[in-house]
Fold:
Amino acid sequence: MIFQRLIWASLAVAFAVGVVQTGVQQLQAVPIILAAEVYEDQKIEAPATTTEAAPAGGHAAHEGHAMAEEAEEWAPADGFERTAWTFAANVLHAFSMALLVFAVMGVALWRGTTLRALPLALATAAAGWLVFHFWPSIGLHAEIPGMDAARLGSRQGWWILAAVSAALACASVAGLKSPLRWLLAAALLALPYVVGAPHITADPLAGFQGEAQAVLRDLGTQFVWATTWVSLTFWLCMGLATGLAFQRWVQPILRATFGEAGKLPQAA
Structure:
């Protein structure tokens, strides 16, 4: 019963947040992405170097080019199809985050928090914004189409390190009572930046020239701010929606199930 209630509450939150998120993306981020995609064909790729013999290398390159064309990734068409898939992705993302927020709120309730549902949800959402956007994005900014960057695996590994460090920092501040928890949190937050975010040494827009490079550089700055506003909107809506849903649907069944057994504090 609890699991079913959590799923339905998370779905309700996900749909509401997904609608808002998709609308904000269409206003803030999508126009920048579409504007940057116009210049992708103007990118000058660096010539590949090879030590193989010329005939064999040429034949291999021809075959590789043909295979690349055949294996070209599918992408939704611009317009309604692209927006629909974006909405579906936003709902799935919001669903997973809603489950996570509900789990954190449940643990806080079990530990005897004095916060009501809405303030608790907003505090949890603020921690989520710090963990999943703000702290990793300081080291790795959002990138527009066409920008060069470090290896994907390196960036993903560092992003995970930054997110986990921020999550542990939030958990130590919220869960420990020792004054040293602030020192521990500061050390955890500093860890990914002591390791260092992976970046390329060259200009990420070195493949573009003249007006295209200037325009893309300006679009890149705009995209960083746009993704920040999109993320802030997402987590604000997540905090509001999960707070209301937790109070209306989740908290009563948690108290009914575990409160009688003495595993949850009774409502004031």
User: Anything to note?
Assistant: Confidence is low (pLDDT under 50) at residues 47-71. The radius of gyration is 23 Å.
